Amino acid sequence: EVQLVESGVGVVQPGVSLRLACAASGVGVGGYTMNWVRQSPGKGLEWVSAINRNGDRTYYSQAMEGRVTIARDTAKNTLYLQMNSLKFDDMAVYYCVVGWRYDYWGQGTQVTVSS
């Protein structure tokens, strides 16, 4: 059974940094393209970032490029998303997603940006 469990501090102020983690089981983060996808209140799903199966290429949405870094630790079987200079628009539920076809999803972790 595939399980993806996202975690990270829930409420942050604008301008701060935050790291999200996604602990995987039943699937290896090193065996697939891994994604972060978010959904803001009242909006659809938005792809944020991806790292390829080899771990040597990373991809970022235009909205997030320059402020986020995706990484993985295959020994811990965990995916990360480092987000810097958080904005109110970054408030969303962030999902860890396996595969370029979005085969498996975590339950999501809420990031609230509030002053």
Care to describe what's here?
This protein has 115 residues and is mainly β. 0% of the residues lie in helices and 50% in strands. The protein contains no helices and eleven strands. It has strands at 3-7, 11-12, 18-25, 34-39, 45-51, 58-60, 68-73, 78-83, 92-98, 104-105, 109-113. Strands 2, 4, 5, 6, 9, 10 and 11 form a seven-stranded mixed beta sheet that branches. A four-stranded antiparallel beta sheet has the order 1-3-8-7, with no helix packed on it. A hairpin with a 5-residue loop joins strand 4 and strand 5 (45-51). It starts with a strand and ends with a strand.
What percent of the residues sit in helical stretches (DSSP H or I)? under 10%
Q: Strand portion, in percent?
A: over 45%
Unreliably modeled segments: none
Class from secondary-structure proportions: mainly beta
* Strand runs, count: 11
Instruction: Please report the number of helical segments.
Output: 0
Largest sheet: 7 strands, mixed
Shape: globular
Using brief descriptors, characterize the structure shown.
115 residues; mainly beta; 7-stranded mixed β-sheet; 4-stranded antiparallel β-sheet; 11 strands; globular
